[in-house]
Design a protein that fits this description.
The chain has 1 helix and 20 strands. The protein is mainly β.
Length: about 350
Amino acid sequence: MSERRTTSTVIGAIIVFCLSFPAIVAGNTIKEFTGEVDFAFSYNDLRSQRQKVDPNSYLLSTLLNLEIERESEDGDSPWTFYVSYQLTALDRYPVDYTGIDLSPYRYWARHIGKKHEVRLGMQKIVFGHARYLRPLRLFDDINPNDFTKKTPGTKSLLGKFFPRTDLQVQSWLLYNEIDGSEFHFGGRINKVTSRGEFAFTYHNWQPDFNRVEEQILGFDFFADIEIGLWLEHASHNVAQGQDYNQTTLGFDYTFPNVGNGLHVSFEHMVTTDGDYAHLNRNSALFFDTRLNDEDTLYLAYVREHLLDINTVNLRFIRDISEEMSGELGFDWVDKEIDELPVIPNQTIPLREGVTLRLVYNF
């Protein structure tokens, strides 16, 4: 590793320590103050065809989450305040690039009442039950191999209303990230049943990637009928006539007599155009099992049928203590490509290499 890489890594570690230490001390002395320190180191061989080079990319990133919660005097309308920053140190070789970036990741304020919840800020908005192949992955950038489910926030106003215990209504306004001249709006109705739940979703926006008006109608359900069964569907009505649809069907089952229990999941997505003519298919198969009281093994296989791309992800996760967990991950792909084209405007990154991670909650 060059002197430049060593310097950037050391500087990043110093900044991480300076940010993390006061938060950990505060989290252990102030009851209402909780948070998380997430430290990850990755070595990736990107092998991008577009760059026509072979950059071995060293990525050192940390994420510090701080959360403060205070209840009102009457106890009926508590406020919650949340802020997180992400520090990233990145070196590329043979591309002559190195840099360190510290930027806001998410921040929001939330007010909770007896039958409502209102949240304003740069926040995480996620729904649906699919894990890998997600038609309703509209506002998040979650890597399905990331067990912490972290994603950069979306600037928005989100309201949740609970007219009954089995019914939830959501509505949101999303800030236009490009020019700030308008807001995008949408909503979701979610009904819980004795065997699962189902929901309808609507959103109207101009996605940042093409600035063409688009209306999205979504439906999803989950049922617990001996096996877990779920479906997600999204129809995209695009102004320029480039309509498309995604449908994912998935199921999971735990084999209790295999080791300490073997959990198996499968998902299959079909992408069609506006006339429901076939465009592409993707499949995902994943397993996880507890090796012992501290260790979990996770294995995932994803196949993109049109381009014949196969990926394998292996994770070992250890519960070091009640507050700390560690992860060792290996990623492999059989094609020289750095993104998996699952949905037209969203992709799953193919970060072939090794990942080491420590997460500390306080």
